[in-house]
Amino acid sequence: MKRQFFLFIMLNVGTLSAFSQKVNLSGQVIDQLSGDPLSGASITIEAEGKQQSVVSGLNGSFIFRNLPGGTYPVHVKYVGYKHFSGTLSTGAPLKVALEKEERSLHAVDISGRHDKTTAASAIQADRRANVVMNSVAARTIEISPDLSVANVSQRISGVSLERSTNGEGQYPIIRGMDKRYIYTLVNGIKIPSPDNKNRYVPLDIFPADLLDRLEVIKSLTPDREGDAIGGAINMVMKDAPNQLSIRANAAVGYADKFAHQDFTTFDHSASQDRSPRATNAAGYQATMKDFPNNAFTYNTKHNPINTLFNLSAGGRVWKDKLGIIVAGSYQNNYRNVNAVFFDTETDMNNGDAKVTSIESRNYSIQQQRSGMHTKFDLKLNDKNQVKLYVGYMNLAKNEFRSKSDTNLILGRTGEGTGRISNSYRTYHDVQQIFNTTLSGNHEIAPRLHMDWSAVFSKAADNRPDEATLSLTTGVSKDATTGALVQAPLYLDGTSTREFTRNSDQDKAGYLNFTYKTDLADAKVDWSVGGMYRNKTRTSTYDEYTLRPTDPSTQTYDGNINHNNFTVFNGEGTATNALNYDATENVGAAYAMAKITWRKLELTGGARYEHTDLSWNSAVPKTVSGKTGAINYYDVLPSGLLKYTIDKHQALRLSYYSAISRPNFYEVIPHTGGDPDADYQEKGNANLKRTTADNFDLRYEYYPHGLDQVLAGVFYKRLNNPIEYALENVGTNVYYMPDNFGKASNYGFELDVTKYLRRFGVRANYTYTHSAITTAKTLYYSTGTGTSQKQVDQTRPLQGQSAHVANVSLLFKDDNKLGLNAQLALGYTSRRINTVSQFLNNDIWQKGFAQMDFSIEKSFCKRFAVYAKVNNILNTPYELEIRQPYTASGITGSVPHQTLGRNTFVRKDTYGANYLLGVKFKL
Questions:
Q1: What mean pLDDT do residues 375-392 have?
Q2: Would you place residue 482 in the very low, low, confident or very high pLDDT band (cuts 50, 70, 90)?
Q3: What is the signed CA dihedral for 166, 167, 173, 175, rounded to 10 degrees?
Q4: 535-581: pLDDT as tens digits
Q5: Residue pair 727/734 in contact by the 8 Å Cβ criterion
Q6: CA-based R_g, the chain, Å
Q7: Which of 172, 383, 295, 30 is nearest to 828 (CA)?
Q8: Cα first-last separation, the chain
Q9: Is 175 helix (H, G, I), strand (E, B) or coil?
Q10: Is residue 919 over pLDDT 50?
C-alpha cells in the first residue's frame, strides 16, 4: 500500500512538473517559391497574457525561450510578403513559407531600384554574372575592419596585397598575377593611373565608404577590355537610394607606436609647387632663394590623432524619374614605421649572397585620403535612361624619413660603428584621380538595345620639392675607455631637392548594340560594339644638388639655418628619363553571342584591339630610342559555359585570351631615372607585350540565405611575361624589365560562407603554383680561380604566393541586438619580391599573417557606435635571400644576421591602429 501511494505521488508530481516546465519553441521563415531563408522577419506570439516578438536570424530561424509547454497563436510579417497567421506549439519546429505580395511594377523600375549595398545583392550579382566574379557589398564593407578599397580587396578569395611604405594595402595581386596584369574600373569604365611610370592604379586612393559594391572579375568576355590576364577590379560607386537617405560618420583613431615614439613633422608650405626650371624662362639658373630651408626643418608632435568623416545624401525626385546622390569622405591618419635594410651583392668567388651595409630607417607618415562623387540617373521613359557620374579622389601624403647607413666592409664591425652616412628626407605628395562619365541606355526597337558612354578621366601626381639632407659622421671606440664616441655630423655634397610631376589623361567612347532573338526554344542575344581611347601621358622631373658653401666647417647642429649651401646644377635635370611624353591610342571592336537554352548559358565571341604607342623622351639625342613608336594588334577570343544544375547549384567553364601592355616608362631607353629606387634602373625599348590563355572551372553552391560554397580551378599560360630583374649591362648592374620566355600559373580556390542564426564563418583559401625558367649567372671555383656560366633556373613568378587564406568569425544581428562583430585573419605565404640575375639570389618576402577586428552597435534606431583595430599582431614586412648568411668580408657580429640561416635583407614594423566612431542614418 505504501509503495502504491508513493508511486501515485511521484506520478502526480511528474505530471505537474511537465506542465510547469519551461520549453523553447523554434521555427524557420523561408520564401515559399525559392525556399531561401528570410532574415529579419518579425515573429509575434501571445504568451502568458502578453505579446512577445523576435526576429529571424541570418538562416531564417527563430526561437522563443523559457515558455510553458502548449500551443500559441503566431503571426509572421516580412516586408514584401503576405502576413502569416498560425499556431506554434511544443514538438517539431514550425516552418513558415511566406508568399510574395503581387505588385504591378515595370521591369525597368525593379532593376533601377535594386539595392546594391546588401550582402544578398552581392551574391546575386555573382550568380547572374556571365564571368567568374567575387563581390563584396557596401554593408559588408561598412562593418569590416577596412577603410580603403585596397584593404577590402584582400578579403576576397585569391587576392593578396602589395603594401605601401606605411603598411596599408596598395596594389592587389589576383591569383598570383602581379599588379601589372590587372586593370581598375569605376562603374565598369577603365581609369588612368597617377603613377609616373606604370599603368596600374593604387587602390589606397579610394575610400571604401564611397562604394556600393566591390567586384573582383577573374575572367573576361569579348565586351570587356582585353588587358587583364590576372583579372580586373570594378568599383560600383554609391547609387541614388529609393527614398531620401542621409548618412554621416565621424571617428577618431590612434596608432599604438605613438605611446613611445613622437611623430616627426615638417612645414612644406613655403616650397614651390613646380621646379625652378618649369616656372622660369629657358636657361634659368636656380639659386638658394628657390629652395627655402623649411623643408630641412623638422619638429615633433606628441600623440597625433587620426580622424575620419564621411557624409552622403541622396534620393529620387520628379516622380522617381531622377535619382541624385552626393557623397564625400575624408580620412587623416598618422603612422610611424621602423625599418632596417641591408644592401646585398653576390660574392664573385663562390656565388654566395653577402651583405655590404646596414641601414636603420624610420618613417613618420601622414596620409590624407579624400573622395567625393555625385551621380545623376534620369529615366526619360521605360525605354530610355541617361546617367552622369562625376568622381574625384585625392591622396595627400607627408613623409619624413631618417636613414642611418653603416658600411660593413673594410673592417667595420656592425651597425652604429665606423663611417656612417645619415640622411633626412621629406616630401609632400598629392595623387589625384578625376572621372566623369555620361552614359545612356536605349531600347531603339522592340528587340534592339543600345548603350553608350562618353568618358573623360585624368590622373595626376605632384611631388614638389622632395628634400634630402645628407650628412656624414663616424663612431669609434675610445682607446682608453673602450666607449663608443661619435664624431660631429657634417654636411656632405649630395643633399638634393627633387620635383616630380606627371599626368595621365584619357578620352574614351564606348558603343554597344544587343539584338534579342529566339532560336527554336533558345534565347539568343547578339552583341556588337567597340571603343576608342586616346591616352596622353606627361612626366617631368628635376633634381638639384646642394653643396655646403665650405665643407670643412659645415657641421650640423640640428638647425639648418646655421648652415649655408650653393646650388651645384642650377639648370636642373632636363635630360633625365623621367621627362617624357607618351601617347597611346587603343581602338577595339567585338562580336559576341549569349545563348540561353534550358539549363545552359553559353557566352562567346572575339575581340579585336589595336594599340598605337609613341613617345618622346628628353634623354640626349645620342641615346638610341629617344623617340619611338610601337604598333600591334590582337585578336582575343573568349567563351563561357554556365550549366545550372538546380536552383542552388551551377557549373562554370570559361576560356579567354588576354594581353598585358608594357608600362610607358619601361620602354623608354633610360639609365637611372628613379632616384628613390633601391637599385639603378634601366629601360628596355625591345620589351614586348605579354599574351596569355586563361582557363577556369568553378562549381557554385548557394544552399540558402547568405551561405555559399564556391570551388574552382584555374590555369594560365603566359607568353613573354614581363618581370624586373637585376641584370649585368657592361660593367654595371641595373634593375630593368625584360621578357622571360614562357610561364604557367595554375591553382584552385575554395570560398565558404556559413551562418547559424547570428553567428557565421567566412573563409577562403587559394593555392597557386607558377613556374618560369630563366637564365641565371653561377659563379664557381675552378681550382686556379673563379669563373662563371649561365644556368637555367625554374622559379615562381614575381609576386606569386603559393598559399593565400582568409578566415573571418562573424556575429551579425541587425534586428534585435543591433550588434555586428568581425574577427578577420589573413595569411599570405612567401613570394619573390625581387628577381636576381644570380643563381639562388632572388629576394623573397617572408610569409605573414595579419589579424584585424571590428565591432558595431546600433542605438536609438538611427545611430551606431563602432570600433576597428588593425594589425593586432603587429605583423612585420620582411625580406630575405634564401641562402645561408656566411659573414663574407665582415669582421664581428652583425645585427639581425645569424650564421647558417637565410640572409636577412629588410624588416618594417607598423604597430597596431585603433579607430572609434559614431554613425548616423536617416
A1: 95
A2: low
A3: 180
A4: 999 999 999 999 998 877 789 998 999 999 999 999 999 988 889 99
A5: yes
A6: 32
A7: 172
A8: 74
A9: coil
A10: yes
Q: Are strands 448-477 and 418-445 parallel, antiparallel or unpaired?
A: antiparallel
Please tell me the distance from the alpha carbon of residue 540 to that of residue 277, in angstroms, as a whole number: 10
Separation CA 241–CA 249 (nearest Å): 18
Contact 28, 60 (CB under 8 A): yes
Q: What residue ranges define each of the domains in the chain, with the CATH number in brackets? A: 2-98 (2.60.40.10), 249-275+285-498+508-921 (2.40.170.20)
Compute the distance between CA of residue 898 and CA of residue 884 in angstroms, rounded to an integer.
Answer: 8
Q: What single letter denotes the amino acid at residue 364? A: S
Q: Which of 542, 54, 623, 73 is nearest to 274 (CA)?
A: 542
And the C-alpha cell for 590?
A: 567585338
756 CB-near residues (< 8 Å, 6+ apart): 57, 58, 59
Q: Which amino acid is present at 458?
A: K
Q: Is the predicted pLDDT of residue 819 greater than 70, yes or no?
A: yes
Give CA 128 to chain center in angstroms.
Answer: 24
For residue 248, give every residue at least 6 positions away whose Cβ sits within 8 Å of its Cβ, in sequence order, or none.
Answer: 309, 310, 311, 919, 920
Q: Does the pLDDT of residue 733 top 80, yes or no?
A: no
Name the residue with cell 675610445. Answer: 478
CA 880 to chain centre: 24
Residue 625 gets which letter from DSSP? T
Bridge partners, residue 717, by sequence: 693, 744
pLDDT digits (tens, 9 = 90+) for 402-458: 998 887 775 444 444 567 888 999 999 999 999 999 999 999 999 999 999 999 999
Which residue in 500, 546, 567, 539 sits closest to 274, CA to CA?
500
Residues shown for the chain: 922
Q: Which helix (H) or strand (E) holds 754?
A: strand 742-756
Burial 750-783 (b: 16+ CB within 10 A, else e): ebbbbbebbbbebbbbbbbebebebebbbbeeee
The residue with cell 624586373 is 724
Per residue in 254-304, pLDDT tens?
A: 999 999 999 999 998 899 999 999 999 989 999 999 999 999 999 999 999
Q: What is the pLDDT of residues 174-225, one digit of tens each?
A: 999 999 999 999 999 999 999 888 899 999 999 999 999 999 999 999 999 9
Give the mean pLDDT of 3-10.
43
| Grid cell at residue 535 | 591616352
Beta bridge partners of 768: 747
How much is the average pLDDT of 460-477?
A: 88
Say how far apart CA 822 and CA 819 lie, in whole Å.
Answer: 10
C-alpha cell at 802: 603559393
**Average pLDDT over every residue of 488-501:** 90
User: Do 398 and 365 touch, CB atoms closer than 8 A?
Assistant: yes
Residue 190's CB: how many other CB atoms inside 10 A? Answer: 25
Say how far apart CA 449 and CA 107 lie, in whole Å: 15
pLDDT of residue 145: 94
Q: CA separation (Å) from 264 to 299, 399, 469, 495, 526?
A: 6, 9, 15, 20, 61
Give the rounded percent of residues in the chain with a pLDDT score beyond 90. Answer: 63
Please report, for residues 677, 734, 736, the alpha-carbon distance to residue 672 in angstroms, rounded to integers and kept in the order given: 9, 9, 10
CA-CA distance, 774 to 781, in Å (whole number)?
Answer: 23
In the three-class reduction of DSSP (H, G, I as helix; E, B as strand; rest coil), residue 223 is classed as: coil
Cβ neighbour number for residue 742 with a 10 Å cutoff: 13
Element housing 641 (H / E): strand 627-646
Quick one: DSSP state of residue 109? H
Spatial contact of 662 and 632, defined as CB atoms under 8 Å apart? no
Question: Do the Cβ atoms of 32 and 82 come closer than 8 Å?
Answer: no
Q: Cβ(510)–Cβ(529) under 8 Å? A: yes
Q: For the chain, give the percent of residues with pLDDT over 70.
A: 93
Residue 557 DSSP SS3: coil
